[in-house]
Each structure stands twice: as structure tokens, then as C-alpha cells.
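Researcher: Structure prediction, please.
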Amino acid sequence: MLSALLHDDPHTVGPYRLLARLGSGGMGTVYLARTPGGRTVAVKTLHQRLTTDTALRTRFQLEADAARVIGGRHGAAVHDADPSAPRPWLATEYVIGPPLDDAVRAGGTLPETAVRVVGAALAEGLAQLHRSEVVHRDLKPSNVMLTTSGPKIIDFGIARAVGEEPLTHAGGAVGTPAFMSPEQTAGLEHGAAGDVFALAGVLVFATSGHGPFGSGQAADLLYRVRYAEPDLGGVPPELVPVLARCLAKDPAERPTTGELATALAEGADPHRFADVLPDAVLREIVRRGEDVWRQPPDRRAPPPPEAPPEAAPVRPGMSRRRMLAVAGGGSLAGAGLAGGGVWAWLGSRDGARDAKGGTVAKKPKAPSRLWTFAVRRPDSGGDVLLAARGLAVPAGIVLSGVNPESGEGTWQTNMADTWRSASDGTTVYALREHDEGAELAVCEIDPTDGQPGKPLVEVKDLAGGEARNQLLCVVKGRAYVVARASSGKRWYLVALDLRGGRERWRSPVDAAAQEYAPPMLCGAVSGDALVLCRADSGIEFLRLSVHALADGKKRWSLSEPYSGTPPTRLVHDTRHVYLSDETLGARKLSDGGIGWLFGTTRDVGGSAGETRLYGAPALRDGVVYCTEGDRGVVAVDAVTGSINWLEKDLRGRHLNRDVPPVVGKKFVYSLDDKGLRAVDLRTHRAVWTYETDATVLTADHGRGRLYVREERATFALPLA
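Model: Predicted structure follows.
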């Protein structure tokens, strides 16, 4: 996992620019870095305080040599190293994938087939080491990385040549107790058979979730490794004989790496490694690959200077002159004065104090309305339409223009139902007000008076007089419409070129299920696809379909269960469309397959069963946000479906699960039975609530506005 660089971490190591920390241990720190040519690498450095230790420098050299021996197939390929540098460093391939222990925690134990393939590949990697008379001596789940091409062995910090004098004191046990060999616990020679013992322990963990000798204090573990029988509970029966043999106390009774690889490879194809990994592991691999190219976290600021140790406590009522004299001896040259207690005290003296005398930050207050526009909300839908020169607010059968700065009404036009207008973010478009027998036409709405302009495109064989004709969306000069044919009852999905004034293609769709509603709930363009959503009549299901943007041909369709109010907006990116009900899920736009499901095993609280468990989702900057039962807002990675965070300390609220949250730079906004709640994106706690019974939220990120729609009024709040 990536973490921010510390203030005293170097900016470069050798020719490599450091981006983030990957981890740190007793011997060194591993960084994510890039070459001058843009290649991503992992750079390991020895801690500065250890650079004068000759033995540790020698060990660092051995680690680099062992990494070169195992190579890029079974380990992280070495790019460069300088063990003799003032601060020794080693640059290797950045392995994209989770350690085995993280993978098991994220997705559960591996199936037997995956364990066989992993074990056979690891045995081959160890065999390559052993042929060069090098032993690893610290094989454990965290030192096995899972990638789409196979497992890789990393961290050769205590590897050494067979028969070589140890670099630690005589009889000392070096390694990780839970995965040591019996001979290693006794301080004896740990040879190739010792690595086989450790590998068996790793495979027991992979398939059962626990090590062969349990957990606990190091002394207890060392005793059990040396004298107790291994716990193989949870290991598939077919694997028990071979793993039990590997865990024999006598090294001579264990199989060689070659024999182990052969025994494990039965019934498993090592060349189809990605196919045997659980979906959760594959999602984690993808997420880590995405992380490499995201903006790295900001370097941490240095800690503030400490207050002068000689400073006397300041008594209430003390004058500023006396206070300065006591704290700094009357001199402003004291290092602790400018950055320490005095100015902090001055800045916070009017604030509240906690039980320990510290300052308690004042709780933010809900903002005041910027303006209010009195208008009735439609019975369904009602999202505010954004345009370059104002807003268009649906209100029953009319569309009202609103000045986004003042909230004053600017125009009004009769546009019938909400599904007959749409905005591309710059211009508002509408289907011409329907007249019996007239052809279908798409017009621009004049931003000054709200009147429909001259038709941009007309189609004579589509019934303009049909009230349920629907303008789904307008993207890049093309309008996507669902309309009924002038003759007969056939319905079509139609792409209209607004710039060229002509029809591009049409594709048949099912007729409207209800007499007074359009065929579709909503539609959106994503990449080279048009995604449609409709409600199956009489059943609580949503029907999704994806059509090729080039010719309208249907690529796939499927039905998804839903509860509550059907969506009026599709939440999507170029990979997935995101839906929520009993779970929060991602459907692949490519084929409709499940990208990921979140919430299948989570406790969402006792009040969640009233409607859906997960509220309508929202997407912002690669994160999906929704409500989880009545526990609060949950944030989930859009690529992998792994949780980023869950709102903290929320109690006594019933959350609105039909309205998706709105995400700003500082807050995520969510509706509940007490109003509009602002959840801090940094602390994950609600900081204020604005009392309202609103049922529509629209974000205007360009203007920094949040539009909130109640039954009889629409108002604007700052979007922070």
C-alpha cells in the first residue's frame, strides 16, 4: 500500500525519483520510484543509522545477489544496485499484486487449484535459488506476491549461501517464528530442506487461513515448530499428505523442491495462473496497478518545533508583556516562541478547552442559503439542468430558467414532462412541444427567453405527437432519443446528428410498459457505448442494455433487482455501470459480467431491511459513494470494489436511499430524515446538518453550488 513520504525522506536515490513509501522495516525502507524514462520501480534503502554497520552492508549486498539469482520470473527483476553507496540501495521491478497474506485477508483462502499452482511455482523459484547454493531463510506469506503471471518471491534480507558463516551471533534464531524450520529455531544450519518446510507453512496458510503452528508469543511458536505436530485443519484432504511430509521435523524426510513441484502440479496448469485466482485477488491486482499512476500522496510536513522546556505555565489574566517575559525571557529569539506555545495560545485563547487543557476545534455550522427559487418540484425526476448561461429547472409541465448567481427566474416555457429535455452541460435541448401528427424535432432552448429555437433535426416518420417520446441525453453534438413510429406501435432508439441535421441510426426497442411513462428510465454515453435502463413492468427489476455508439446494435442486456424509487441517472465510468440494492455492484460495460460486488457479507444494521440495503450510488474521482443501511456513507474503490472508508459515529438517522450523495472537495452530502448531512472527506464524520425534506440534489462543480430541491422550493448552498 502506498503511503506519503516523510519530510526527511530523500527526494531521489541514485537516478530514481521517489514517489511514495511502500513499507519500512527494521533494516530499511522500500519506496515507489520512477526512472528518468518513466519506468516504475521499487527502491530499497538501508536505514541511515545502519550504514556504518559493516555486517549489515554485507547482508545488503547478499540480498541484491540473491534477488539477481532468482530473476524476474520467480522474483522481482533487479534493475540496479549500489551496496557501496553512502546509503546502500537496490532498485527492482515494482511487482503489481498483493502479498499472499493481504490476498487471503481480502478474498478468503485460495481454492485448492490455486494453491497447487502457487505452490508449484514457488517450489520452482526456490529450486532456482538452491541450484546457486542460496537459501531464502525467511519465506512467509508477506514475502510471496501474487501477480497475474504467477507468484513472486521477494525480500532476501536474511538469505545467504549454503554453508556460509551466519552474520548473527552463534546459535541465534533468525527469521519469522511462525514459518521457521525446526533446525532454524535451534540455531542450526537452515538448508534447502528448511525452505521446503517454510513453503509448506505458506501453503497451509493459503488454503486454511492459519499457519501450521498457530499464532501467539514468539517463544510459544518456536517451541511448537520444534516439537509439536502441525495443525492441518482446513487443508484439502488431497494436499494433506504432501504438506505433512514437507513439515517433517527431520530435514531428510522432506521432499526436494523438484519433487514438491511435481506433486503439486498434478491437476493444475501453471500457465493459466490468473484463471485460478479468486476475483477478489484479481481486483486487488488491478487496484494496485491503478495506484501506480495516480497522483502520489503529498510528502508529510515536518513536525512543529517543540515548546521550550524551560517555559513556565501561563496563568489566567497574565498580561501579554508578562507572558512574553515568562515564556521567552523577554527575547523573541527563542526558537520555541514563534512556532510553539505562545502564539498557539494567543490564537486559541477564546476557544473551548478539553479535559487536558487542549483546544477543541469549533464545530462547523451549516451554511446559509445563497438563494431560494419558489417552484414546484415534479413528481419524478427534477434534476436541475446545467448550462453555460444559466440553469433550467423542471417544474411540472414547464421548464424555468434561473440565474445561478442570484436565483432569480429568467424565463419559463411549456416543455411537458421532464423526460423531454436534456443538457450537455453547455446547452439545454428539448423535443419540440408535441402537436398531434407533427414530426419529431429536437431544438435548442434559447438561454435568454427559454423559447425553442429552429429545429436542429427533424424526422418525419417518428411521431412527434407522442407524449412519451424521450430525449435521453445529448453528447458531442449527437442526441439520443427513444420515439414511436408515426405508423404502427413500434418504438426505436435513434441517434440524431444535431450539427448535420440528420438521423445517424435507429435500433428497435420494446414499447413503453405504462400508458403515461416513456419506455426508458434513463440513458447515458460511456466510451463507445450507449447504456439504457428501464423498469420491467410489475416486477422490481431494472433492465440494462448496452448498444454500440457507432450503429446502435445491442451488445448485451440483463435484469437487475431493485427496491425503492427507480433511478433517473446512470452512474458509470468507462469500465462499469454501478447499481445498488442488496449489494453495491459494478457491471462490466464490455459484456455485462460482474466486475465486483460489495456488501455480500457485511453487517449493515437492523434497520436496513425496510427498503434496499445500499442507497443510490454516486461516482467521483474513481470512488463510488452510497449509503450502507443506516450506518452512513460508505466509499468504495471503483476499480476493485474494496472499501476505502465508512462514515463514523452516525446514530439515530434514517438515511434516504433513493437519492445519491453529492461529492465535493471537502464534503460528501447525503440526505436523511433530519436533513442534508455533510460528511468530512478527511475525518469521515458528519460535521453539520441542514434541516430540509428535500428529495433531489444536483451538483454544479463548475460554479461551486449544490442545488437542493424541496416540494415547493429549490435553493442553492455552497458546494465545498
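Model: Residues 161-173, 309-360 have pLDDT under 50 and may be disordered.
Researcher: Thanks, that helps.
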